[in-house]
Amino acid sequence: MRHLVALVAFLAFxxxxxxxxxxxxxxxxxxxxxxxxxLLQPYRDLRRLLGKQAVYSRTTTWVFRAGxxxxxxxxxxxxxxxxxxxxxxxxxxxxxxxxxxxxxxxxRFFTALAAxxxxxxxxxxxxxxxxxxxxxxxxALFLCLVVLVRxxxxxSLSGMLRAELPEIWHTQGPALxxxxxALLVVALAENARIPVDDPNTHLELTMIHEVMVxxxxxxxxxxxxxxxxxxxxxxxxxxxxxxxxxxxxxTWWSLLAFLxxxxxxxxxxxxxxxxxxxxxxxxxxxxxxxxxIMGAFALVLILR
Amino acid sequence: MxxxxxxxxxxxxxxxxxxxxxxxRRPALGQALACAAMCLGALAGVVAAVAALLAxxxxxxxxxxxxxxxxxxxxxxxxxxxxxxxxxxxxxxxSLYGVGYFPQARLGAKAIRxxxxxxxxxxxxALVVVAANAILFLAAWEVMALAGFFLVLTEHQxxxxxxxxxxxxxxxxxxxxxxxxxxxxxxxxxxxYDFSAMAGLAAAGGAATAVVALAxxxxxxxxxxxxxxxxxxxxxxxxxxxxxxxMSGVMLKxxxxxxxxxxxxxxxxxxxxxxxxxxLGGVSAxxxxxxxxxxxxVKRLLAYHSVENIGIIAMGMGLALLGRARGDAALxxxxxxxxxxxxxxxxxxxxxxxxxxxxxxxxxxxxxxDHLGGLSRAMPRTAALFLVxxxxxxxxxxxxxxxxxxxxxxxxLRTVFDVGAAPHPHIAAVAAPVLALVxxxxxxxxxxxxxxxxxxxxxxxHAQHAHEASASMLAPMLVLAVVCAAIGxxxxxxxxxxxxxxxxxxxxxxxxxxxxxxxxxxxxxxxxAVAAALIVVGLAVALLRRRLLRRPQPGAETWGCGFxxxxxxxxxxxxxVAGMLVGSFRWAFxxxxxxxAPHGVFPHRSMYSTYVPDTALERGIVPALSWLAQLAARxxxxxxxxxxxxxxxxxxxxxxxxxxxxxxxxx
Lengths: 304, 667
Prior knowledge:
The structure holds 2 protein chains of 2 kinds. In chain A, helix 9 (218-243) crosses helix 10 (251-275). Chain A has helices at 2-32, 41-50, 62-79, 96-116, 121-152, 157-160, 165-190, 209-212, 218-243, 251-275, 284-303, and one strand at 56-57. Helices cover 71% and strands 1% of the residues of chain A. By secondary structure, chain A is mainly alpha-helical. Among the domains of chain B are: 270-546 and 579-589, no CATH class; 616-662. Helices cover 72% and strands 4% of the residues of chain B. A two-stranded antiparallel sheet of chain B has the order 1-2. Chain B has a two-stranded parallel sheet with strand order 3-4. In chain B, helix 4 packs parallel to helix 15, helix 6 (109-130) runs parallel beside helix 12 and helix 14 packs antiparallel against helix 15. Classes of the chains: A mainly alpha, B mainly alpha. Chains A and B meet through strand 1, helix 3, helix 4, helix 5 and helix 9 of A and helix 17, helix 18, helix 19, helix 23 and strand 5 of B.
């Protein structure tokens, strides 16, 4: 039964992630007074890209072609470790969150290398920014996860996000609140959202993630976009479960409530994107260091 | 029997260079024979190490040796056996690599010298690892240090190599001095110079603290723990690449071995030792990778990454020592396994990277990252193998770097549960985020290295005319890459043997350690399962991509925002990739920067160059020692400094001693 729930949750992760982007874009459209694209537009985009040919820069080598494949495979493998809405993951074990973070790192490593393979200075800029901000985001993520380890007494994501999480809020509320906010900042940075990066910007000089994938086209670009939506879903699952632990006794109900929470997460994301401005690039490390400091405060609170 | 095999391995590898001397008239044959001797010796040693790991008791051997206080006693326990693998395998592969990289037929005497000392250092390192007597240990240690000096000095006509070799020699002997003092103290505490007598010493008191401080100086100098790493970047970048692989991959680990061995002598070491090791390791790891990011020379950069990885190993050791202070078997196992496994792993991927860098230098003649570029077209095999090493050193799954870093994480997380309950310091809880920072920075650094060397357009004519490395250079790299992947995919297979070695090291009962090894093993198999899933999904996506893109795809110029004539000079350089991160570590560097800014409407000539020297060497050691030298020069009066007067002092001292002996002497 538990395995069935885990499997259903994993399939929901694979199938519903693009919808998350659809919701974010719709919320942003509403804020801007536009009708906006249909909610299912991301799926159509993916299908369109999968049907297209690809154009490759003559500078590129096999590294460029491997980038999107490894990036997508790494995020899917990371999904095996994530617990969705309190249900255990498909492959939980003590210390799985380390593998989770490093799998995302593997995807980032290959995406950045694929960008450098084009020999373009724009894509070089993107790669440099991506790896720089990632090394600031990583300690913040781990500080939050260490707080969760201590608060829940478990070393696996499934144990940390298990059904008893709401009770732990009663005793360790302040620390968990700080960790949740820090995690939200990390999620924004890792997924290239405003205020760190603007997914809709049109100026290559100011981009981070988008500029890295400028030269990808066709199915490769589809893999990258699908991978990005999966990654957003993974971070969303972490933040949503931490911030809104629904105390339902039935796992099915709690899964449904979790999916509702994910929709809420997308609305919050769209609201943040519509109401805040993008930070200047040199401010981004400061934001991430602030997230680390919040995580460190949470650690102090929980270790005292 | 097993110990005899180890002796055979030591003798055969140690003397392998003699083949090159004996057949100096037929250089190709001489080098082939030396390489064969090295490989056979290593094979014997590896067989012995495997047998020793499986044996119920540690094999021992004692041979007659008439050194005062010394005994030719060998002992191959679990710790020694694990260290024997890198100590023997990496040099054997290095000598095979040398056939293509440093051919005796072309280089003559230089290559003969190199092979002679290459064999000698291998044999002496193996002897250090299995020695069970302090005098034997120190003798082998000295041979290793001196052979290392001659290896660094291989390119003896170059000023850089001369300076690096001198700094190495001074550092090595300063370290030796500390070790002499340490073993003298240990010998007095134990009443014998045999390691068996030293086991189980009490860790309390000033003498024990002094021993640990001296070990940190002596062994820390060899291992390259910050700030004692100052000799390392110069020495590793001046030596030929397979020597760098040996020094960085293996010789530093002998320092780690020494630290572990001495820590193993004491019963219940206090928590302060573990804390000190943990803090030193964390600082080395972060600053090591920060300095690496700032380098332009690929070999200096890799050398700084050794400082980083030694830091990670030290963090594992520190956690294991904290576990022993606490009597927590699981923590001891995780920390010890992390340290030893990371030692083995670092030896494989760092050697792979140095050999890859050597292939690049061989093909292009330059070590400067910003003169390279686009080599993955001319050298696809080297590029692929280098990429395996780069991903492994960043700790990315499914390679071996992840397996050992994961164990360090697990150990540090274990302390999170009972932090505050003495004697765990709060600081242990921060080890995991620090390691995450190091991982992020290392990934950034290797994106820079791989991207600048192998991707994009060639940045100079050196890089344009590169050629693929020869088979004898690629084969050792392939072996190392396969080891990286094998340990990364099946880390659980090594854990039971590590538990036995941890039991021998810590003196804790095997049951507790075995239980935590089994627990960690269960998790490690899940890591393997996820790695398998990663590979399967990757293959499936690649197949899907191939089906969708059946026809050959059109090619085009890289998108340059409409600019159609990009040149290689417009690419992002290695310095620009690391620029932002280097900027945030400015407080630790003292960069030498030269800027000639462009002026006017038609700027004439502008330039920018920056170089980050080693802070410890340039700002610490060199000023301090020159101050000392000045002081000494002032203290030396003209009268006392005269040679005649010193000779007179010497002779009169000798005469006085003889007279004293003649009239009774020591009764």
